Amino acid sequence: MPPPSNNPKRDDIRAKIAQELRNPGSRSGKPSRGKSRPTDSARAKPGKRPPMGIMTTTLWEYPSQHYDDHLGRKSQGSKDYAGASPSWAIWQLLQRYTRTGDTVVDPMCGSGTTLDVCKDLGRKGIGFDLNPQRPQITHADARELPMPDETADFVFIDPPYSTHIDYSDDERCIGKLDASAPMEDDDVMMGHAYYESMDMVIAEIDRILKPGAHMGLYVSDSFKKHKGKKSGTFMPIGFELFAIMREYFEPIDIISVVRHNQKLQRGNWHKAAEEQNFFLRGFNYMFIMKKPS
User: Fold this and answer.
1) Handedness of CA 146, 147, 149, 150 (dihedral sign)
2) Which domain holds residue 95?
3) pLDDT tens, 68-118?
4) Which residues, at least 6 apart from 273, have a Cβ–Cβ distance to it below 8 Å?
5) Do 148 and 203 belong together in one domain?
6) Strand, coil or helix: what is 51?
7) Exposure pattern of 244-262 as b/e (b: 16+ CB <10 Å)?
8) Within this chain, do residues 24 and 168 fall inside the same structural domain, yes or no?
9) Do 77 and 129 form a contact (C-beta atoms < 8 A)?
10) Which of 10, 79, 95, 144 is 20 to 30 A from residue 59's alpha carbon, by CA?
11) Using CA of residue 27, residue 33, residue 38, residue 39, what is the dihedral sign?
C-alpha cells in the first residue's frame, strides 16, 4: 500500500481498496468470515428480473438462475436440485436455433428445466435421465436414448463436471466417473472412463439430431484440491469435450456464461483461493455445434 498522503479522504479510499484486495466483497474493514457477499446479481428477485432478450455477444450474464416467463411462472425446473442449468441460458439457445413446434431433447434432464423452457416457448420438450425428478422425464441412459434416428430439432445437455455432485445412486451415472482419475492399463488419458462415456453420449446426440440441426453443451472445467496440500488437479473438461464434439459436429461458437454460484459469494472461498494459489470457476462454457447437413 502507498505511504500516507496529506489527503485523509484519499487515504481512506486506499485503505478500502487494500481491504477489498485482501478479502473480496468486504469494504467495511472487517473480514466477511464466509458470509455471503451482497451483490445486485445475488439479489435479483421474481418480478424484478430484467426482461428476456437475445444476447448478442459471446459473454452471457443474467442476474438470476431463472427468468419470469410469459406463463406467469417465476422459476423453471427445481430450485432444490443441485447443479440445475440456468433456464435463461436455455431460453437463449432455443430462441436462436429452434422454432415453435420443434422437438427439443435433453438427455440429462435433471429436474426438468429444459422442459419448462420448452413449454414457455411453444417447443416440444423431451427429457431423459437416470434419476428422473418428475413424471414427464423418461428413465433412460444418455448413452442409449430410446429415440429414432434423426428426429430431434435441437439437443441441450448439461453433463456432470466429474464427481463434484452426487446425482443418483445408479452406478451407471457418469457423475460417478472422476475426470481426474489416473491412467490405467490401456487408458489414453487421465479420466479415460469419464471421457469415454461422454463420447458415447455425444455419439447418441449425433444419432438423434436431424441433419443441419444444432446442439448446445453447457459445462465447466473442474479443479480438485489435494487435501492438506497447496496443490490440486486441474481438469480441462470443456476443452476435452469440445475436442470430442469436433469429431461429430461443426462448431458454431463458444459462449462464456458468467456464474453466480453461491460459493462465489463467500469471502472465505476467495481467501482460500488466494492463499492456496488456485482459481474458483467464474464461468461455464456454452458450446454451440451443428450437425452437418
Assistant:
1) negative
2) 39-290
3) 988 777 888 776 666 689 999 999 999 999 999 999 999 999 989 999 999
4) 279, 280
5) yes
6) coil
7) bbeebbeeeeebebeebee
8) no
9) no
10) 79
11) positive
Give the count of alpha carbons within 13 A of 188, CB side only: 3
Please state the domain count of the chain.
2
Can you give the pTM of this predicted structure?
0.81
Residue labelled with grid coordinates 447443479: 83
Reported in sequence order, the residue ranges of 185-292 that DSSP labels E, i.e. its strands, are 209-219, 222-225, 232-235, 250-258, 283-290
CA–CA distance, 70 with 290 (Å, rounded to integer): 29
Neighbours of 179 (CB within 10 A): 27
- In terms of domains, do 242 and 169 share one? yes
Q: Take residue 116 and report the three cell numbers written for it.
A: 419448462
- b or e along 60-85 (b: 16 or more beta carbons within 10 Å of the residue's beta carbon)? bebbbbbbbbeeeeebbbeeeeebbb
